[in-house]
Design brief:
Elements: H1 2-8, H2 18-27, H3 33-36, H4 43-69, H5 76-85, H6 90-94, H7 101-109, H8 113-118, H9 121-128, H10 142-149, H11 162-169, H12 173-193, H13 200-234, E1 238-243, E2 246-251, E3 260-263, E4 272-284, H14 286-289, E5 295-296, E6 303-304, E7 309-321, H15 327-334, H16 344-382, H17 390-410, H18 414-432, E8 435-437, H19 440-446, E9 451-454, E10 466-472, E11 475-478, H20 484-491, H21 494-506, E12 511-514, E13 520-523, H22 526-539, E14 550-555, E15 563-569, E16 575-582, H23 583-589, E17 590-594, E18 600-602, H24 605-620, E19 623-633, E20 647-656, H25 663-672, E21 676-680, H26 685-695, E22 703-706, H27 707-711, H28 715-721, E23 725-729, H29 733-745, E24 750-754, H30 760-765, E25 768-772, H31 778-783, E26 786-788, H32 793-834, H33 842-860, H34 884-912, H35 919-941, H36 958-977, H37 979-982, H38 989-1009
Parallel strand pairs: 9-21, 9-24, 17-20, 21-23, 22-23, 24-25, 25-26
Antiparallel strand pairs: 1-2, 1-3, 3-7, 4-5, 4-6, 4-7, 8-26, 10-11, 10-20, 12-13, 14-15, 15-16, 16-19, 17-18, 19-20
């Protein structure tokens, strides 16, 4: 079986080729493609979407090409004509605006520089839409702006209603055949037996089909609602805007025309707009135009389009078009966006369903043939084949219905969909636990993760940073004491303090803004927040003249250069460049040092060594280290690069970022679960080692290495080195990508965390990419499979727990369903061969199908994870899905049920001394009742495949308990009150007790089976069957 599954039903968890997707679709055996393929992508629709995307990209490129030539005189007449088309309506004018929505939208989308200049440039546009660069728009104007210029949402296709799911469920081929059989049965029954008796058999089948359809549709509809809710969460993106004179965070869906949006590296441009001001703004327009080369945006080329991404730099933009007036909105509204790539487990279970279905089809045909042959032989001997009656037609129809129902039971349509159900349930629970799963396969794959490459800052640590120590002018000062700031002010000159504050405030991508309460609020990264908080305390009551410089050029921080630089125009004349970043890098750029009086001296070699020792001492105390330096220049040309040497060192900062509570325990849980945790950070190696030791990541035999050293290794050296690496410091995003690639080549299942734009390749390459929800950029989130909303390492472990739960729950469900399949097929086939009748009727088999399919999936696929799951090694991709343990349980339980049902079938009358006129009906009802109770108790058995105690935590899963209770109640109703439809008769209380007792023996059989070892090396000697050994003395109690 495994060989067949690997050959025909094997897809990778990420980036599956179209060929692999088409291969399994061609091999699958399916009765209801509408339902089975509802949660997998429609490859034809996907090709249509790609074609639409290319069409829009070509349209955008064409507009850009036209914009390049629009200044020519040949276009002047066209432009003049075009202007007449756009006239502000009375509604626009009465609201106080001076430009129509369509004209405003066309400026950015068509890159129409001429029209922009006619309106007075960006400043003129802002006046016409009553927006201020400094204060933004007024909150009270939002409804009017949305009414005239539109809302920032694109038209989405309406979601599927409940009745559409009912319609899907009705498309099952076997159910359609059964409905036809039922209608024929009713017609023939009315003709032969009259009303109402002649209707019972056919009506019973129709009612059973309707019950199956409704239960299936309810289950599928609930899943769709869960996915819809998760989809809404995926689309939640927040941006910084200036409104009412203050900077605030708003949802992209609340943006209006006129909003002043602040963009930084990794952001997605949320609407069409115009560039106001900024530094080194580099935009990736490939998602919209298809062009791979990024574009620099300046005042001369100010057009920004929704859906593009900020690759570098920062800027302010004014929104000119939102929603369906943007090319991005038009594109998104035309795409189907439905059908996420199928997961490996879904595909594998489609394969299992195919194998079982084909076997079931064979059994159904054989059963029908045997029943027909026996019927014809019996008729030929007793009556003759030339005499036919309406009752004969009903008998043949009944046999055909039984054969078709065997196919319904045998083809587990719900098996692949059970994966979707389990994943949807897990994703909903993970959402509550601060993990947003973007791709279904990630949750499943995380259960097999054998390695986690994690960032340090914000993931292992709290990301709440404060300046703990500073080295300045040969002084090292700790800020634990309350009077530390006053001491620092007393020990160094005003000139040095002013230079230090200027370097912090000017060389920062963060902002200090006053809230409505008048208090200072810092908007920016945690590192810069720590520096600015320190600077505000040091500044005290001083006049903030050090903030009055005009910036000439900015080089934003990125993880490759590991520094940020700025050139400012000094009020006294001349220019000054500031640089801050990784300590070792900044010290290498310096050849001078400033003393306490503000005098500059050469940086001698011995002094540089002393400073490096101070940096290492800070790092050894688990502090992040950062250096600040400056260089004065008489002249500066905008085309020149910011200097990279000749700087004067001002200060070394030691920034404290404590380890998150619970991280040490989470790392320990990973190690117990067979998951290796590796820290990959851009920080100093001593800081990284100190934090890694505190978290329990770095062990005595582990290796800590720096990125530059790692990059020098050849492939053979890397192969030998990588298994030992536990910490990689001063790493580049490329190092992370290289590490992930090599680990995957070693057959590791790798999860990797990332937050920056440059982390996107590693997130994409990894088996599971985990982006940070707080610190992560939109580019990183888009490349990730899971977004960790609270940036917490313990949340990542929770994803692994649920991933393992999904895999184990599906195995439980498969084990349960295989047992029911085997027993139902063999019982009906053997009975047909020996007695010429089938003890389980079509209605009864439909009820059993619902127990094992939809209800069974709900009960077993929604079991929450337990701690035991994280005390076993991860399941490797090469391991068989249906394990020896599962086969042991299926064969053992199947044999028991077959023996019990066979005994009742062939010797029930004699053993139980049933001498009533309807003895056969009583025995058949008893067989049906016993069979159902065997499944009820086997369902409880399936909660644990290896452990004896199957009742542990049963009441914590209310879904499971409710389904077991409902199954029992419905069984009582069917047997006692719906006999006319279900071909049953009421049973005495003794027979009810017998049914329950025979079913409950499954629990004892299950316990015995679990003591039979079938997988070498899996026996737990210390904890047999998952239990602690009996204490041997008082100390063990």
């Amino acid at each position: 079986m495994e060989k067949y599954l690997r050959e025909h039903f094997d897809v990778p968890p990420k980036n599956a080729t179209e060929e692999a997707q088409r291969k399994w679709r061609a091999a699958v055996f399916v009765l209801n493609p509408r339902r089975r393929f509802r949660m997998v992508p429609n490859l034809e629709k996907r090709q249509e979407d790609e074609s639409k995307r290319r069409s829009v990209q070509e349209k955008v490129r064409e507009k850009m090409r036209v914009a390049m030539y629009v200044q020519h005189a040949a276009f002047q007449f066209m432009d003049a004509a075009k202007q007449k088309e756009y006239k502000p309506t009375e509604e626009v004018i009465s609201a106080g605006y001076a430009i129509s929505p369509d004209e405003l939208a066309s400026i950015a989308s068509a890159h129409d520089m001429k029209t922009l200049e006619m309106h007075g440039g960006v400043e003129g546009i802002s006046r016409e839409i009553r927006a201020s660069f400094d204060n933004g728009v007024s909150t009270k104007d939002l409804p009017a702006r949305q009414k005239i210029y539109g809302v920032n949402k694109y038209t989405e296709k309406p979601s599927r209603s409940f009745w559409m799911f009912v319609w899907d469920a009705l498309h099952d081929l076997t159910l359609i055949i059964l409905m036809v059989c039922a209608l024929i049965s009713i017609v023939v029954g009315l003709a032969t037996e009259g009303f109402p008796k002649g209707m019972y058999d056919g009506l019973g089948i129709i009612l059973s089909i309707l019950l199956v359809v409704v239960v299936t549709a309810v289950s599928d509809y609930r899943q769709s609602l869960q996915f819809k809710e998760l989809d809404k969460e995926k689309k939640k993106i927040f941006v910084h805007v200036t409104r009412d004179g203050s900077r605030q965070k708003v949802s992209i869906f609340d943006l209006v025309v006129g909003d002043i949006v602040h963009l930084s590296i990794g952001d997605q441009v949320p609407a069409d707009g115009l560039f106001i001001s900024g530094y080194s703004l580099l935009i990736d327009e490939s998602s919209l135009s298809g062009e791979s080369d990024p574009v620099y945006i300046t005042r001369d080329k100010p057009f920004l389009l929704a859906g593009t991404k900020v690759q570098d730099g920062s800027a302010k933009m004014i929104v000119t078009a939102v929603g369906m007036r943007t090319e991005w909105g038009k594109l998104m509204s035309t795409l189907s966006l439905g059908g996420e790539d199928e997961t490996p487990l879904q595909v594998k279970l489609n394969g299992v369903a195919t194998i079982i279905g084909k076997i079931g089809l064979g059994f159904a045909c054989l059963t029908f043939l045997v029943l027909i042959i026996r019927f014809l032989v019996d008729k030929g001997i007793n009556v003759g084949l030339l005499k036919w009656y309406p009752e004969d037609a009903l008998t043949i129809l009944d046999y055909f219905a039984i054969a078709v129902t065997i196919i319904v039971v045998a083809v587990p349509e719900g098996l692949p969909l059970a994966v979707t159900l389990s994943l949807a349930f897990a994703m909903k629970k993970l959402m509550d636990d601060k993990a947003l799963v973007r791709h279904l396969a990630a949750c499943e794959t995380m259960g097999s993760a054998s390695c986690i490459c994690t960032d340090k800052t914000g993931t292992l640590t709290t990301n709440h940073m404060v300046v703990d120590k500073i080295w300045l002018c040969d002084l090292t000062k700790s800020f634990n004491a309350k009077d530390a700031i006053e001491d620092l002010n007393a020990l160094i000159s005003e000139n040095v303090v002013s230079t230090l504050l200027q370097g912090i405030f000017e060389n920062s991508s963060s902002e200090v803004v006053k809230g409505k309460d008048g208090k200072n609020t810092i908007l920016g990264t945690p590192t810069e927040t720590a520096l600015l908080e320190f600077a505000l305390k040091l500044e005290g009551e001083r006049h903030p003249q050090h903030r009055a410089c005009e910036k000439a050029k900015v080089e934003p921080f990125n993880s490759v250069k590991k520094r940020m630089s700025v050139i400012v125009n000094l009020p006294s004349g001349g220019y000054r460049a500031f640089c801050k970043g990784a300590s070792e890098i900044i010290v290498q750029m310096c050849d001078k040092i400033i003393d306490g009086e503000g005098q500059i001296h050469p940086l001698e070699e011995y002094k540089a060594k002393e400073i490096l020792e101070i940096i290492n001492s800070f790092a050894s105390d688990a502090l992040r280290t950062l250096c600040l330096a400056f260089i004065d220049m008489e002249e500066y040309n905008e085309s020149e690069e910011i200097p990279t040497d000749g700087y004067t060192l001002i200060a070394v900062f030691g920034i404290k970022d404590p380890v998150r509570p619970g991280v040490k325990e989470a790392v320990k849980a990973c190690i117990e679960a067979g998951i290796t945790v590796r820290m990959v950070t851009g920080d100093n190696i001593n800081t990284a080692k100190a934090i890694a030791k505190e978290c329990g990541i770095l062990t005595a035999d582990g290796l800590a290495i720096e990125g530059p050293e790692f990059r020098t290794k050849n492939p053979e050296e890397m192969k030998e080195l990588i298994p030992k690496i536990q910490v990689m410091a001063r790493s580049l995003p490329l190092d992370k990508h290289t590490l992930v690639t090599n680990l995957r080549k070693m057959q590791e299942v790798v999860a990797v965390t990332g937050d920056g734009t440059n982390d996107a390749p590693a997130l994409h390459e990894a088996d599971i990419g985990l982006a940070m929800g707080i610190a992560g950029t939109e580019v990183a989130k888009e490349s990730a499979d899971v977004i960790v909303l609270d940036d917490n390492f313990t949340t990542i472990i929770n994803v692994a727990r649920w991933g393992r739960a999904v895999n184990i729950n599906i195995q439980k469900f498969v084990q349960f369903q295989l047992t029911v399949n085997v027993v139902a097929l063999v019982v009906n086939f053997v009975s047909a061969c020996i007695t010429g009748t089938a003890p389980l009727t079509a209605v009864q088999l439909l009820w059993v199908n619902m127990i094992m399919d939809t209800l069974g999936a709900l009960a077993l696929a929604t079991e929450p994870p337990n701690d035991e799951m994280m005390k076993r090694p991860p399941v490797r991709r090469s391991e068989s899905f249906i394990t020896r343990i599962m086969w042991r349980n299926v064969i053992g339980q199947g044999l028991y049920q077959l023996i019990i049902l066979g005994t009742l079938m062939f010797a029930g009358n004699k053993i139980l001394d049933i001498n009533e006129p309807d003895a056969d009906s009583v025995v058949n009802t008893l067989i049906f009742n016993t069979f159902v109770f065997c499944q009820v108790f086997n369902e409880i058995n399936s909660r644990e495949m290896e452990k004896i105690n199957v009742f542990r935590g049963i009441f914590r899963n209310w879904i499971f308990s409710a389904i077991i209770l409902l199954t029992v109640i419905f069984q009582v109703v069917i047997v006692e009150f719906l006999g006319a439809f279900a071909s049953t008769v009421p049973l005495s209380w003794q027979f009810w007790v017998l049914s329950v007792v025979l079913g409950s023996i499954s629990l004892i059989i299950g316990a015995i089976l679990k003591c039979i070892p079938v997988e070498p090396g899996r026996k737990n000697v210390e904890k047999p069957n998952g239990y602690e050994p009996i204490p041997s003395g008082p100390d063990g109690v």
